Amino acid sequence: MATVQSVRGPIDSSELGRTLVHEHVFVLGEEYRLNYDTDWDEDQKVADAVRDLNDLKAAGIDTIFDPTVLGLGRYIPRIQKVAAQTDLNIIVATGLYTYNDIPHQFEHRGPGQLFDMPEPLVEMFVKDLTDGIADTGVRAAFLKCAIEAPGLTPGVERVMRAVGQSSAQTGAPITVHTNPHTRSGLVAQQVLKEEGADLTKVVLGHSGDSDDIDYLVEVADNGSLLGMDRFGLDVYLSTEKRVDTIVELVRRGYVEQITLAHDASCYIDYFDPAAKAEMQPNWNFRHIPDDVLPMLLEKGVSEDDIDTMLVKNPRRYFE
């Protein structure tokens, strides 16, 4: 067992229960919101999030990991308001989300930069993990970085190495946004390993966007967990193909390296809500408990396998 930091405070890893490893409460540009979103209603947005998460709890899910970090609009006081009104555990992250460049706040500060100094990203991430985020009293429980189609750009590499170093220092696990079609999970594994991170404590997010079994087996054989975590985003891969891929991985003996989620959110400012619901009607928190789990069972995945994917694997991520 291990202690896991949640928004409401530390819990034992045995209390995580059924866990979706990659969901968001809010994804938004705070700077944009403050300057241009004249329709924003803070109380209503919080109430909507509470409703959605309580509904998810009623569907049998006990915990979500929320990898909303710098670059995605992380604002912990708002998450605290939501967490205070739901029994569902919310586990938050530290890190930085970019596909290309490092934010301007860091481009001139750091090893070998204009202002040569120890990596400020590592100092930030470790502080969030050990002391808490800002003055909220909430500690991050895991780390997040990304590598997309542009590949290992200088900015992406710098963030990823800082995440790897922070994990090596603290033991905190990592989630990486990857693009499996470019096989970027292999790149992430190499860089994180070079920085001392334990690959068995890494979720390669969005692995479920691909049904390339050979690639998925290769990264799983390196020790990492597979994030089959975009159920409902049929624009990337249909639910049926996502389910069939998991069935095949389970058949091959990889059930202990599979995690599940939707990468959904209570609110995201990337899309008009009505248009999003029309284009991707299954992209919501209920899709896995209502649709995906019955499909897996129908195709021969056992209840024990589902328990491994939803309970045992997320718990082992911290233990």
From TrEMBL:
<dbReference type="Pfam" id="PF02126">
    <property type="entry name" value="PTE"/>
</dbReference>
<feature type="binding site" description="via carbamate group">
    <location>
        <position position="144"/>
    </location>
    <ligand>
        <name>Zn(2+) 1</name>
    </ligand>
</feature>
<feature type="binding site">
    <location>
        <position position="263"/>
    </location>
    <ligand>
        <name>Zn(2+) 1</name>
    </ligand>
</feature>
<feature type="binding site" description="via carbamate group">
    <location>
        <position position="144"/>
    </location>
    <ligand>
        <name>Zn(2+) 2</name>
    </ligand>
</feature>
<dbReference type="GO" id="GO:0008270">
    <property type="term" value="F:zinc ion binding"/>
</dbReference>
<feature type="binding site">
    <location>
        <position position="206"/>
    </location>
    <ligand>
        <name>Zn(2+) 2</name>
    </ligand>
</feature>
<keyword id="KW-0479">Metal-binding</keyword>
<dbReference type="InterPro" id="IPR032466">
    <property type="entry name" value="Metal_Hydrolase"/>
</dbReference>
<feature type="binding site">
    <location>
        <position position="22"/>
    </location>
    <ligand>
        <name>Zn(2+) 1</name>
    </ligand>
</feature>
<dbReference type="GO" id="GO:0016788">
    <property type="term" value="F:hydrolase activity, acting on ester bonds"/>
</dbReference>
<feature type="modified residue" description="N6-carboxylysine">
    <location>
        <position position="144"/>
    </location>
</feature>
<dbReference type="InterPro" id="IPR017947">
    <property type="entry name" value="AryldialkylPase_Zn-BS"/>
</dbReference>
<feature type="binding site">
    <location>
        <position position="24"/>
    </location>
    <ligand>
        <name>Zn(2+) 1</name>
    </ligand>
</feature>
<protein>
    <submittedName>
        <fullName>Phosphotriesterase</fullName>
    </submittedName>
</protein>
<comment type="similarity">
    <text>Belongs to the metallo-dependent hydrolases superfamily. Phosphotriesterase family.</text>
</comment>
<dbReference type="InterPro" id="IPR001559">
    <property type="entry name" value="Phosphotriesterase"/>
</dbReference>
<feature type="binding site">
    <location>
        <position position="177"/>
    </location>
    <ligand>
        <name>Zn(2+) 2</name>
    </ligand>
</feature>
<keyword id="KW-0378">Hydrolase</keyword>
